[in-house]
Amino acid sequence: MEIKTSHIVLFSVLLLSSFVLHTFAKRHREADYQLLKAKLNSNSNIDKSHFTAYDNHLPELITQKGLKEKDRIHRLPGQPPVRFNQYGGYITINETAGRAFYYYFTEAQHPSKAQDLPLLLWLNGGPGCSSLGYGAMQELGPFRVGSDGKTLYKNKFAWNYAANVLFLESPAGVGFSYSNTTEDYFGGDRKTAADNYVFILNWLERFPEYKNRDLYIAGESYAGHYVPQLAHNIVYHNKKANKTIINLKGILIGNAVINDETDNMGMYDFFANHALIARETSGKIHKYCDFSPKMNISDECYKFLAEADQAIGNINIYNIYYPLCFDGNLTSIPKKFSIMAIDPCSDYFVYSYLNHPEVQEAMHANVTKLHYDWQPCSDVLKKWEDSAQTVIPLIKEFMANGIRVWIFSGDVDGRVPVTGTQYALEVMNISTINAWRAWYRDGEVGGYTQDYEDNLTFVTIREAGHQVPSYRPDRGLSLVSHFVEGTPLPNK
Ligand SMILES: *[C@@H]1O[C@H](CO)[C@@H](O)[C@H](O)[C@H]1NC(C)=O
Ligand SMILES: *[C@@H]1O[C@H](CO)[C@@H](O)[C@H](O)[C@H]1NC(C)=O
Ligand SMILES: *[C@@H]1O[C@H](CO)[C@@H](O)[C@H](O)[C@H]1NC(C)=O
Ligand SMILES: *[C@@H]1O[C@H](CO)[C@@H](O)[C@H](O)[C@H]1NC(C)=O
Ligand SMILES: *[C@@H]1O[C@H](CO)[C@@H](O)[C@H](O)[C@H]1NC(C)=O
Ligand SMILES: *[C@@H]1O[C@H](CO)[C@@H](O)[C@H](O)[C@H]1NC(C)=O
Ligand SMILES: *[C@@H]1O[C@H](CO)[C@@H](O)[C@H](O)[C@H]1NC(C)=O
Ligand SMILES: CC(=O)N[C@H]1CO[C@H](CO)[C@@H](O)[C@@H]1O
């Protein structure tokens, strides 16, 4: 097993002529970057057109009677005692194809208030990365895995202090989610959004007490596509049926892929203004690179992108000031655990934990005995068929429909950095309601925030990388609490 998160020869990706995920299987977390780069290539056959709902029929529901209790997780191996309910299991997406998505659900840690707290669905990106492996086990879930790959520690900043949190591994081929039809491992934005919609409809049948509950959808990175696209399908079907089939109240996306043109330029500008590349290189990129959708990337531009990618050296691009993982071996006794200092080798601990047969049994995962192991980012997804250039029109749709939109950004992420997000907001050309200001947690500036018209809020999280709740779990909990309450972040 090898998870190379640290040593990435970025510029070689530029030589990609088509997007073939498995070629780069070992560079797991770079899935988002591969897709971004593949989309720059005019010969790639990725459909980049505007996202529209894939399926205009309301999907048929499958009966879920009695399945909820079967999904209850009594105790995860190595888990400390807790007082909330956990569930895990499969929801069938398509019976004919034999396609099923794995979910892990952690009810709120508020015995008295849980029934008042909203439902929050969390999605990680990639494409191909697991919401269980990242979101649940390294970011906002109630537990973190120790360096022995066996012991679980409590995360006192878990998001289930603010909501009932549902983690979904999606699309088919990611984590424990699978299909018995191999063609389903050709992924894409439209398929993913349609399947995620079928998932949530059927999950609500299994957990009917959540049917009228306020729903929020959150995610990071390439989930900057998944979240708005699923939300669009929800809005679309609600409108078509002229009733609230799913009670969607808001979306929360962080370090999110939103708009390719500004994401690309924003990334190279972030490199330049954080002194990761030479000013001259940055100047050349500005001179020779036009990332606008209709333009092709010139050879001259490629040359300077490669120069930049190489100049950065071997750093943790997901948090440019964080250490690398040098030794992913498990320890027989878990190292001292600190929730505020995530171990850079955590991927390895989680990999080991989720591949234990007893863990899978306790979680009701891998019931069909898949012939490959659980991976943090998929090795079995074969390609990505469509990926819209921008999701800005979807964001504008939500703003026009009274759906709360919060866009956040860990400000030391170099992969989908804050600079690109700010450029995307500029492109949206929306007016400010409350000017840029600092927000606070524990007396320190937690980041900055600005409110725009129609309930759009931008929030930065200071000193957080790509996975905000991994690096600044305290500030991440402030973010989600204020988001679901719809209250401003503290100004002191
Ligand atoms: C389910 O999968 C089958 C086989 O792949 C396909 O023909 C059918 O259209 C799918 N059904 C739905 C509702 O998507
Ligand atoms: C996939 O195939 C296995 C083995 O035949 C079966 O047990 C399982 O139920 C199938 N999955 C779905 C979602 O139909
Ligand atoms: C939608 O439903 C409302 C109330 O149930 C009704 O007043 C309205 O006419 C309906 N609109 C359409 C387009 O069917
Ligand atoms: C970009 O390349 C494609 C395919 O090679 C070509 O059809 C298109 O005209 C080019 N666009 C520009 C603006 O040069
Ligand atoms: C485990 O330790 C060995 C010996 O020090 C080293 O060669 C290997 O790369 C380590 N494995 C990982 C996954 O870091
Ligand atoms: C599923 O279980 C089989 C048999 O125990 C194992 O070989 C495989 O690695 C597991 N796959 C996943 C995705 O967990
Ligand atoms: C931005 O919005 C303003 C006011 O709505 C409008 O006058 C202006 O033309 C817009 N600019 C662009 C570039 O779309
Ligand atoms: C809940 C909330 O903040 N609603 C606001 C959404 O945006 C519109 C238009 O800017 C406001 O009028 C609402 O008060």
Would you give an account of this structure?
The strands form 3 sheets. Strands 1, 2, 3, 6, 7, 9, 10, 12, 13, 14 and 15 form an 11-stranded mixed sheet that branches. Strands 4-5 form a two-stranded antiparallel ribbon. Strands 8-11 form a two-stranded parallel sheet. With 492 residues, it is of the alpha/beta class. The protein has helices spanning 31-40, 67-71, 131-139, 189-206, 223-241, 260-273, 279-288, 299-311, 346-355, 357-363, 392-400, 418-428, 468-471, 473-485; strands at residues 86-94, 99-106, 119-123, 143-145, 152-154, 164-168, 178-179, 186-187, 215-220, 248-254, 383-384, 404-410, 432-441, 444-452, 456-461. The protein is built from 14 helices and 15 strands. It is globular. Residues 94, 96-97, 181 line the site of one 2-acetamido-2-deoxy-beta-D-glucopyranose. Residues 327-329 line the site of one 2-acetamido-2-deoxy-beta-D-glucopyranose. One of its GO terms (molecular function) is serine-type carboxypeptidase activity. This is Carboxypeptidase. Its EC number is 3.4.16.-. Residues 1-25 form the signal peptide.
Entry summary:
The protein is globular. A hairpin with a 4-residue loop joins strand 1 (about 85-95) and strand 2 (about 100-105). The termini are far apart.
Assembly form of the protein: single chain
The H-and-E topology, N to C, reads as HHEEEHEEEEEHEHEHHHHHEHEHEEEHH
**Mean residue pLDDT:** 92
Radius of gyration: 21 Å
| Structural category | alpha/beta
Could you tell me which ligands this complex binds, including any ions or cofactors?
2-acetamido-2-deoxy-beta-D-glucopyranose
Please work out how many helical segments DSSP would assign.
14
**Shape verdict:** globular
**CA(first)-CA(last) distance:** 46 Å
- What summary fits the major beta sheet? 11 strands, mixed
Beta-strand level of the residues, as a percent range? 15-25%
- The low-confidence runs, each spanning 5 or more residues with pLDDT under 50, are 1-27
Helix content: 25-40%
Secondary structure tally: strands: 15
GO molecular function, one term: serine-type carboxypeptidase activity
InterPro entries: AB_hydrolase_fold, Peptidase_S10, Ser_caboxypep_ser_AS
Family: Belongs to the peptidase S10 family.
Signal peptide: 1-25
